[in-house]
Queue: 4 jobs
Job 1
Amino acid sequence: MSVRAWSYRYVGPVELKAAVRPGSGGYRISSAAEFDDWIAGRSAVELAEPFTFVIGTDGVLRLAPRRSEHVACAGGDMVLSAGEIGFVREADRWAVSEVSNQSTGYCPDIGFWSEVARALDDVGLGRPSAFTQEVVFRRCLGCQERNIVREDDFVCVLCGRDLPETWNVDPTV
């Protein structure tokens, strides 16, 4: 699969990216069989909470334990999306019970659900029609802090300046 036109670069703390070691990325899931192998090794405790996920620039889903950093799950690479994902067994197959774009390291925009949907469809997982929780990220143009916008209040939590209406977290874009 080729690299997509839009991808997110890691914008979180530099020390977290520096700690990523080659080969430390999340478990790559490109087929139903790979997902079945991965999920079979999960405990009931693990399945009770969401996992960390990224969609690599190759369009493939990668999974890691929830408390894993997204940049580690991605092996330090750029991603098409990132967030948290939960699974539930429905009749004879696995499905996505919850999925968000909650990743303060990549801060992906909500408009890129299609990349997540495509990766989940490629694996044959039942899924919702959109993120079950959408997180809106913005960077303050004044103090440069990354913000999560809550209840459509586009105001920086640190300095009180208005935040842009459009996604702007990566200053190089």
Note: The first strand starts at residue 27 and ends at 29.
Job 2
Amino acid sequence: MKLTSSPLNHLRYYVPLSSFSPDADLSKLSEVDGTNGSAHLARLTVAGRSTDRVIIFNTPALKDLVKIEFRAMDKWFEEDVETFCHPKDPYKRIDILSSTRSVKIALDGVTLAESSSPLFLLETTLRTRYYLPPTSVKWDLLMPSDLETLCPYKGKANYYHVNVDGKLHKNLVWYYRTPTMESAAIAGHLCFYNEAVDIWVDGKKVER
């Protein structure tokens, strides 16, 4: 298998034709416009289910490799570990650091959470996120949301709305019940969108 990145840093898996099981029926449909026969749209059919989100390549760099749109498949695995949403970037990392620095979170002048035992999550190219223990949050201001999102580095996130003085701020808080192994430390902790709330770290306000 090959992992590539586009100029927009969209990672893709390319699977050798020889790696498909005998149960997988892979058939070419038509030539991709402008490729002079070096790429063909294709259909993948397995157990009566199929997807046309497939391209078969025949170039020196991608000879006999198949690109399948990530979301077209039910599951993807790196070795025996399921990965979510999109392939992981080998140049990206997650660091989760325990801290005794005080973190206070407020919205419209109302304190939502405050803790002296937060976790700082550092993710390559992204701003620091502050994960607070559930005992530090004012639960009377939170309302469960049906939203779920996926992250290949952290897993499946669930959300809460925040209600401040009768105004509902949707999906402002997220948490991971069962995060991936690399992010296991944040299980059950809550994180508020930096961009939508006021955050102080050791009394110094963080820019939104």
Note: The chain has two domains: 2-74, 94-206.
Job 3
Amino acid sequence: MAEQETTSGLEGFGKKILNLFIKDAPPTGQPAPAPIPASTGPTPPPVRPTSPGPATPVGQAPAEGSVDTKFVDHFATVLSRANQPGPDYFEFRETLKNLSNLNLSEDQQYQAAWASFKAMGGSGDVSVLINSANQYLTALNNDQAAFSKTVDAALNEKVGGLSNEQNQLQAENEQLAKQILDLQRKIDTNNGRLVQIGGEINEQSQKIAQNKSNYEATLAVFIGQIKRDLLKLGEYIK
């Protein structure tokens, strides 16, 4: 029960922050317009799973950010931890927000908010109000530094790993391209040799055929001569 009350309290504080810092804040869970400029940044906001979307092309700047209710909830936790008892900057900011709808100049709004702040028990020393605002600013700056570390770690883990894989594949492709080039050169060399072999086969075949013809012709002379001598011996010598 206590946990539910704490969660409910933080959700209410988150809605309060949304209304105090963002003009015309929409209902929780709907997109909100951009917040007023402020410095940001000890617990990094939770990383919630999101549906995969199209990857941002290399060299293209990411889309402009928008107010995200999950970060509003996170900052509510950060600021609630930095909140001090009694009226402080938040009560002043709430009063100033309520005065924004009145037809007052900016300096009149701040003067009226300051008077209302003191009336509700806030310190009459403006430095106390300024110090409380700086405490919240410090808490946000510290959170920003912690969040930046988580972003850097995520980039090193995810993007760094993909970059290593990219470099490895590029190196592998270069090696394969070199092997393909070497193989093509080998194929070209072999084709050239095949052409030479084709000519050599014809040349050698002709030489062998000619040699065979010469052999048979020469043999025929010897055989013919011997047969002739045998014939004559039988004819002339008895």
Note: The chain has a mean pLDDT of 80.
Job 4
Amino acid sequence: MARVLYFSRDYTPHDHRFLSALAATPHQIYYLRLERGARQLEDRPLPAGVTYVPWAGGVKPFTWAAVPTLLRDFQRVINEIKPDLIHAGPVQTAAFLAALSGFHPLVVMSWGSDLLRDAYRNRWWRWITALTLRRATVLVGDCRAVQDVALSFGMASERIILFPWGVDLRHFSPGEDSGLRARRGWQDAFVLLSLRSWEPIYGVDVVVRAFAEVARNLPEIRLFLLGSGSQAPLIQRLLYENDLLDRVYLGGQVGYERLPSFYRAADLYLSASHSDGSSVSLMEALACGLPAVVSDIPGNREWVVPGVHGWLFPDGDAHALAERIREAYNRRDVLTEMRRQARFLAEERANWEKNFARLLQAYDLAWQIAAR
């Protein structure tokens, strides 16, 4: 049994899932939280068997000015716990602090956009990215696009483990929608689903603009618009100006247990994200047998084959997204086969239980490298 210190930026549904799986291993798992953001991201308690570590962080948003204080207390945590391995991410926050400590073995886990987007913000972000990767024993990435960025920063390929996070294929599966469509009176509608956070990186405004364009000529089209975020004023203004409020269901943040019903109630999943690795929500949609229309970015191209699992559209192009939605509507006869192919792809590549073993392989590799 090894002592593993899991160090993450905040406490999210993804962290809950990782910690739950790690708690089921023979290892002793300690959880360190870098910050507490303005929004509560996960309301479930820590999984049984995970030890929360109190320290100088984890109580307010992270700032660069706090790094010296956090680093000193991080060293104290290491001295007290004496971990056999630190698992840290995202790259430029939690993993950067872990890298500054000089601890080995260090498994750095990319969260997708930290390498695909944040690594290129400016010289400072490029420097901390390079330092963190240089000091990482092993990097875990969720897609080939992340691997390519790591290689460009000088990371050795033999120290990179690809790990598409995957989803619970029993929880996310085709089935009944629990009456969602019927309660809205949408039994005969063509229903779209968007559930990315209302932040600039996820392009929800592009989705709403495309929906507004399509809705002018397709009276039967409807939209489940879940989520919230800093772009709420913009999203609400677009809905109001285009007279769409009676054709959109604003569902807010939907909990894990209710999510499958929304995937099952939709005819098409939409994501206009400007940056993504292997998107978990896309994998959830595929697992529920839902065809997808997603932005043509490297992470999405690894999952959606046009005409097989859905369609791609040029990143940021609302008109092109509207055209793809019209194509899906006009070719409703092909959606049944797309649903079958989507579920098949999820079973082949997005099985959380099978994919999680890749993370444990990364731990083993890190221990092997450290022992050399």
Note: Residues 196 and 281 are 8 Å apart (CA to CA).
